[in-house]
Amino acid sequence: MKTNIRSQLDQTLDDITLPELGEAYTGKVRNVYYQDDKIIMITTDRVSAFDHVLGTIPFKGQVLTQLARFWFDKTSEVVPNHVIDYPDPQVLVARKAEMLPVEVIVRAYITGSLWREYENGIRDQYGFVLPDGLQKDQRLPEPIITPSTKAEYGDHDLPISREEIIRRNLVLPDVYNLAEIYARKLFSIGQCWAARQGLILVDTKYEFGMSGGQLIVVDEIHTPDSSRYWVADEYEARFAANTDQRMLDKENLRQWLLAKNFSGQGTPPELTAEIRIALAEHYLTLYNRLTGSVFTPQTGPVKDRIINNLRDAGLLK
Ligand SMILES: Nc1ncnc2c1ncn2[C@@H]1O[C@H](COP(=O)(O)OP(=O)(O)O)[C@@H](O)[C@H]1O
Ligand SMILES: [Mg+2]
To answer: Exposed, middle or buried: residue 294 (CB in 10 Å: 0-12, 13-18, 19+)?
Structure first.
């Protein structure tokens, strides 16, 4: 596998410009094209950390697209989603939705930004009060929802409560209630499945939108870019010892950057071949653990392959 990853290092997808596909939006990780009633979402191999795009990781776009697909397939009977078709292993054609201006974040543990807020004494910004005495990474009695407003480009997302969402008319009450019901259903399916595979789905972010009068879940679900996963059989010991949990995602990259004295300010260091390979292995391991099947990497130049597949699908001339 290692040789496979190494030979992919200079064939990854960094960026792709296809104006013929429609109006373009370039996110940190995805290149999106908007058509009348569809979007074409190309998940590149870009990786970001500390709000900077740092380079590419072999097979990352394919892993992310296929993991989202795995979860969309598993949950489509329970929660309607935006999927139309996958013309390529890292391209999704989806129903264009009118996005809800809030993100619905579900958490089963107190960690990350919620822990940092809690540690600083902020305990009530989501419309309920967190009890005193919680420890970092502690499991919550039941999953909580900590919504945030989707910030304009360049701004940080802001915490908000469901009452405030409704009071400010950001979302109609019935629509927002249904989004929370959907989020809880998705999260519960995710938790159960992850547990079967020896993993913990710690927290995750959902985006919803309206399409044809229907509320649907959009974007990506339960991928390592939108969720945190921990290794289940190490949880208790690490929690008891007050050490960080073992994550199967970007943890290594953050550690590597910190060791090079980069934490978001200044110019990020250039990723070496070794760290790119190590990260690719992490993504592949997560894919295999989570799905219980073996990832089949598509080797070769990603951009050429995508263009060919989009042509075959009649999306490009
Ligand atoms: N079905 C959909 N309809 C319209 N917009 C969508 C849909 N699904 C996802 N999006 C949007 O597409 C973009 C995906 O690109 P991404 O790289 O995640 O960007 P960002 O850096 O803004 O998160 C996001 O802005 C997301 O909200
Ligand atoms: Mg996004």
So the answer is: exposed
CB within 8 A of 189, min separation 6: which ones?
74, 75, 78
Distance 99 CA to ligand 2 centre (A): 12
Check the CA dihedral 71-92-56-308 and report its sign.
Answer: positive
**Predicted model pTM:** 0.95
Closest atom of ligand 1 to 97 CA is 3
The answer to whether 170 and 102 have CB atoms below 8 angstroms apart is: yes
Q: 193-251 pLDDT, tens per residue?
A: 999 999 999 999 999 999 999 999 999 999 999 999 999 999 999 999 999 999 877 76
Ligand 1 center–CA 154 separation, angstroms: 15
How is the chain split into domains, by residue range?
98-241
Q: Ligand 1: which atom is nearest the Cα of residue 82?
A: 1
Superfamily of domain 98-241: ATP-grasp fold, B domain (3.30.470.20)
Q: What's residue 264's pLDDT?
A: 87
